[in-house]
Structure formats: C-alpha cells, structure tokens
Amino acid sequence: MGGCFSWEDPFHRRILLVVMLLLVLLCHSVCQAYSMNCSIRFDPLPISHEFYLPGDLVISEIVSQVFLLYNLLSFMEQPTQIVIDEPISVPKNYQHILALAFAVKEINENPNILSNLSLGFHTLNSYYTAKTTYKATLSLFSAQQRFVPNFKCHNHNNLIALIGGCISEISANVAVISAIYKTPQMVPNEAQQHIGVVQLLKHFGWTWIGLWAVDDDKGDRFLQTMVPMLDENSICYAFIMRIPKWNYVDEMIKYVLQRVEYYSTVFREKANVFFVYGEPPSFQVLRMLIFVAPFVELPFRGKVWIVTSHWDFASHSIQKNWDLQTFHGSISFTVHSNQPVGFQKFLQMVRPSWFKRDGFIQDFWEQAFDCFLTTSKEWEGEENKTCTGEENLESLPGDSGLPAEEGAQDDQRLRELRTFSLDKRRVGGDAMAIFSGQVHKFLRSIVFNNSAGDIVHFNENAELVVGFDVTNWRIYPNGSVIRAKVGKLNPQAPFGKKLTIHDDQIVWHKSFNQGLPVSVCNDNCYPGSSRKKKEGEKFCCYDCFPCPEGTISNQKDMDACVECAEENYPNQDQTGCIPRGLSYLSYQEKLGLSLAVSALAFSLITTFVLATFVKHKDTPIVKANNRSLTYLLLISLLLCFLCSLLFIGQPGKGTCLFRQMTFSIVFSVALSSILAKTITVVLAFMATKPGSRMRRWVGKGLANCVVFSCSFLQAGICTLWLSASPPFPDTDMQSLKSEIILECNEGSAAMFYCALGYMGFLAIVSLLVAFLARKLPDSFNEAKFITFSMLVFCSVWLTFVPTYLSTKGKYMVAVEVFSILSSSAGLLGCIFFPKCYIIVLRSDLNNKESLIRGRK
Description:
The protein is of the alpha/beta class and 856 residues long. The protein has 21 helices and 25 strands.
C-alpha cells in the first residue's frame, strides 16, 4: 500500500482506524462466544485532563483547552513525542467547560426538565491532535476508568449525546467514532456564514479582497465554494494565501522566514480586506507572522480581517505578551448567543478547589493568572508568585479569560427530554441504548426557548438552525478584547434581508482614521462614465471612460452607459435623465406672440385698404383694372394673413388638417386674381388697336374664368392630398435632444411640395405677364406694381425652401409663418400702397382727366 495509502491523509487514517476497531471488536466477540480466556489491552497515551460528573444520563464533550508541541515525525531518526514537556494552555477555552458545567447544573436543579433523572457530563481534552482525539472519543464510549469500548463491565455506559470540539477537524475525527454508535453531534451549518460574508462585502462595496485559507482539504473545499460565489457577486480576490496547520514552532518560524518576500507583496496589496478561513491553530501562524514582522521588516498595514465562527482571537499562555493590535477592528460571524441568567454568578464560584474532578483548572489558573498554585509540585523552587486561589476571573484580559462580553451558551438542548416520560425504573437494562437511538429522530422535531430567551430547533438533517452575530473585535493596547455585536445574520429571513449591519457602531483599525475602509482594485468610475476591463486582468480591474453623447450612467462602476427613455434626455454631466419639454410655436413665447401680432396688424391694414376701396368704389382709380378682382385680391390677402394663425399654438387634429389646405387654396386665389388682373390689362391695351380681335375677350368673364380655373386646380390637389394621406399631429423625438417637438406631419411630402410648387407656378406666370405689360401707357396701369410685388413674392418663397428644410421644430413653423406674412405683405404693399396714397392723399389725381393724360 506504499503507493496508495498515506497516513498523512485524514480520510485514509480514519478508514484504517475503523477497520482496526472492527477487527478488535470481532476478536473480542469470538473470544467471548467460545468462552476463551482472552483479553485485549490498550496502551494508549494518558489523558490527564478530564472533568467527570456522574449522572443517570451523561453528555460528553471534547475540548481543546490544553495542547502539546510535537516534533515533525520523520523516519530518519528516533521519534520523540514532546518538544515542550509542559502543556500549553489556551485559557479562554476553559469557558467551554464552564458552559457545560453551568448548563448541567441548571438542568439538574430544575425539577420540570428531567424528573427522577440526573444529568452528568464527561469532558476530555483533545490536545489538538488526531490520535489523542480518537483516544478521547473511545474513552467516552468505554466504562468509566476502564478503556474497554462498547462493553458494560461494571458501570453502565449511559452516554446519550456528544459535543464535538471547537475545531472542525477535531469534530470530524470525533464523528468517525460517534457515527458507529449513532451518537449525535450538534453543530451549525457553515454555508450560511459564507453567504453572510458575501453580503457583508457587497454592503460595504469591497470588491478586491485577499483570501486566506487553511492548507488542507477543508480549505480546498472552501475555495471551491467561495471563489465562484465571489464571481457571481462581482467580487475578485487579489491573492489566495494558504495557511499551514502546524503545531511545530520550529517549522512554523522556518515557513514564515522563507516567505517574507511574498508576505511583503501581499501586505502592500491595494486589498484592504482579508477574508480568513481557518481555525485557532491557523490563527497562531498569523500570530507568529506578526511576531516576527519587526525582525524581518514586514510592511504591515492596517487591514480589515473578516473571519468565520471557527476563529477565535485567543492567546496561548506563551503568547500573552504578543501584540494583537493588527486585528483591531476585525469582523467575525459568531454563533448567536445571549448571556444566560445566572452565569456571571456561577463564575464567581469557580476556584482552584471548586470541584475535585476538574482536571483542567490547575493549568488554566496558573497560566491565566501567571502564578503557581501551592499544590503544584512541578513549580517548587521557582521564584514566581503564588496563586491565592481567590483571583477574579472577570479581571482577565479578553483574549485569555472569560470577559462578560463573551457570554456562555446555555446548553439546554435537553429541555424537552421529559417528552420520553423516562423515570428511574427505565434506567436499567437497555433503556439507555433505546434512548440514545431516539435522539436523532427527536432532534428533528424539537423546538423550545432556552433560558437566554433564544429559540432552539433543528432542521431535517438534525443540524442546529442558528443565526450568527456580526461581531466587531476591539483589541486595546492593555490586552483587553471586547466583542461588540454590530449586526446579525438570520438564515431564516427572506433573500436580501438576511444580513443586518449597524455601520455607525463599527470601530475600524486606526489606520483608516475611522473612515469606511475602501478595498477596490482601482478607483471607482463615477456617474457620467463607464468602466472597461483591463486586458489580462480580473474583471474588478478596469479603466474609466466618459459616456458617449446621448447616454448616461447614474451609478458608480457601471459596465456600460445607457440611453434615456424617449421622453427624457441626459443632463450636462450625463449623470441622469431630465424630462424633455414640449416644443411648438406657442402664443406664450415672444416669437409666436410677435408673429401673431404681425398677422393681426396686417389683417387690420388689409381691412382698412378694402374699406377705403369700397368707400371710393366709383373713383377712376378703383374702377380701373377690374374693381371686382381688386376686392377679391384684398379679401384673399386678408385670409392669407389670418390663416397664418393656424400655424401658431399646439398642433391639433383640426389645425393640422386644415392649415396647409387653407394656406394653399387662399394663396392660389390671391395669385389667380393677380394673374387675371395682369391678363386683363394686357388684353385691354391689345383691344384698343384698330381691327383687333381681342375685344371679345375683354370683360369680367375672362377674369372670372382665370380665377376659378386656377383656384379649382389647387383645390383639386388639396382634395387628393386629403383623401390619400392627410396631415396629422405628430411628435419628433430625434431632432432636438432636450425637447419633444409637437408638429404636424404633412402626411405626404410629395403632395405638400406639389401644392407649394403649383403656387410657385402661378407666381412665375403672373411675374412674366406683368413684366411684359409693365411699359403699357396708362396712369393706372398696375402691371409695373404687380411685377415688383411678384419679384418680392418669388424671392420670399425661393428663400423659404432651403431655410424651411434646414430648421427644426417650432422654428420650421416660424419660417413658414414668416414667409406667409412677408409675401402677403409684399403683395399688399407693392400693389395697393400707391393707390391708397392717391386715394387718401392725392385725390386731385383720382379723376378722369388724369387717367386720359396718363394714356397719352
């Protein structure tokens, strides 16, 4: 098996132990079956540290209050077991012994819990090694004072439950034996702690952390679970440091010194948060690292240490003067506990002679108070102070004693044991075996409140369902340690509400100046920018780039900028969206109001001109050039000014439908009237020539025909437009980023430009005819005025087209309104201003003689 089996492998070691145990038991059974005189003897290492209290029912406990330092085993030399022959105490772990003693005392003194039965306990030390843990566990299943597992020689083995060690490896080693006897161990599930740590990291925005994991199978499983969980929550690790699990001082120091350069790099990392997965022995490696740091110039900086419930900032007796300030401000998840009533009073009873069967108190007392008991023969002759036996436990520093903040877990898991209705008559025979086998089933249904006020229950896997306290460790220069509860983790709470943190109650390491520690790969990308991953680095390391135009980022570290909704637009800093205003040519703004006032003013002027012409309808200047066409032209110009008002105001279904139609038809009537007046003038002068055939065309019939036919053709175009694709209200979201343009969609752009082109055609024809008739001899010849007015008209509308196409929103409408007003005003002024001047101011010229002189 040399190539397959390894004694260093815990799994292989446990399998071999179970096989050996089964062989021993089989041999012993064969001997008894054949009445053979055979005996099986064990020569185990002595376990001198134990605490036994007899009872009808017994709860056993494996603790790690004392340990020994061993040499690293080697096949090159004769092995020795102990380097330091004096056991080293972890004084703080003595609280686990006292907690069980207090719980048993409370149960026995309460007649309502176990009537007619007494509860005892049996505590053995594991010495932090697998072989002594196995030995201690087998001893618990043997008759008292006789190492004969699984047999009841003289005293009954009435063990009903087993409390494993504070270290998971010890609990696992205990489980190898306890599983055979179906004796329950009760521990909370650590998976909830990992979820809590991730939520804690997200709560504070820590995305760049260091991972420390014990270098064994549990550390491997932790990393396999934790790394994907971090990735899923956008958290990266800067490094992974494996912590060796040694109890060999020389090897520990050698390891630290060999890796000084690597440790220097780790502590210079930008990661200010270290998540540590390990147990007290692993913590001692870090203690050693900190201890040698000043000698090898390690650049220790303040960090936030996050640890799980396995961790404990406890000092060994040889470490009492070692500095712990590096861990000040650490955060841990500890199993929820409250101070049970009466525990502090119970502590006051503890003295070196308080119980004869307590094999732990001597080492604890001497190493905790740095004195020697007079009963200790080992210390005779030493020049050290002697313990009085009256020292106060509450005076001990927090890292080595039992401070009030620490609390004790009042283990009243057996409160409901009376359900089984056991009394002394059932203790004999196989009652205990039956009872022990029922505990697993019983634990799945038990729910009760302990004396500390907490609800205790187990899940379907007989695992203790318990919450965790978020603890802030405050370590002071005098060595005192205070555990302050700053939050809680409730596994039963809904998702997103499992973790509760009181930020203002947390005390950070002094290097952070009481500000919130920052632990990121690089500075945050603030709103208005987005992050882009750096090539070849983890996703938590990135560069920041400003958001492209038209997009925003309103949170830190956004992966991409986003566009605002259509009804919003980005602000100047591109950090948020602002509601877009409505844009249209309104009467409330200066531009719209000025155009509306201009339209009304020109309408009044046109009305005044029309009234003047009506009043002087019998004068030669009014009668000349077809008085009816003059009235029709003035009325159409009046309507042209008024129709511009349809373009001002919020576009509606009615205004959009009729404004272009009204404008096109009215303007066509005006241009047709001008064309008819010009043609009438030309025909009139042609008819004056002797023998001319044009006389039959001169008259109102031709003029009316021209006006009707030209206007009817434009009306036909508009009718086709309305039937095919009529205009409708619409919104333009694209042209202006800060406004929503309310506009009238023309429906068919082709029909719009067709109607506009037809008006241009009429204007050009009128211009050409008037240009040809401009020099005809007549005092009241309008041809020259029409020519000039049509030049103005054509200039306006030729300028309108490119200007209209190059503007957006309300300014596009304003351009069209301005073109309507200016072209209409050009026609009104150029044609009728000279005539009004004669009618109003030079009435002496408005007579027949002047008309005759003009013709000559």
